[in-house]
Amino acid sequence: MNTHDLRSLRALRQLREQRASSQLVAQQRRCRDSHEALDDAKEKLRLHREALARKAEQIYGNFSEGLSVSAWQAAQEHLDELADNQRELETNVDLNEQALAAQEREREVFRAVRMARQRQAEACDALLGDRLRSERQSAERRDEAEDLPVVSSGNRA
To answer: Which of 11, 18, 40, 66 is deepest in the core (most CB within 10 A)?
Structure first.
């Protein structure tokens, strides 16, 4: 492999490194967005649970004062609806947690690939440096050999 090929590989590696870096940044952004979505879903669930508890307290408080059968059934239906909403919110939280875990796994893959490419790049740089040093030393030796005077081996008189 000649020096030109090594330089071409170095340029290609740098392009790959830039792409890997941008992929990692994008993945980190997706992880941050997933964290925010999960936090939002958890907050909605918390608020919903608080509202459900307040509504249940209100209904049971009214029950102690005496409710009609229809009012009791309406309250029970409302509580069932709130419980269904809570299950949906819990499912949303679970889905967000799964999405976040997937995003974090993907980020780790990108990070590992980037590190492997970085080690490969360092090896390539070292190889190119060695090659350039070797070529420079060879050129210096050639120049020195050309500068030496030619000594004849025989005596001519």
So the answer is: 40
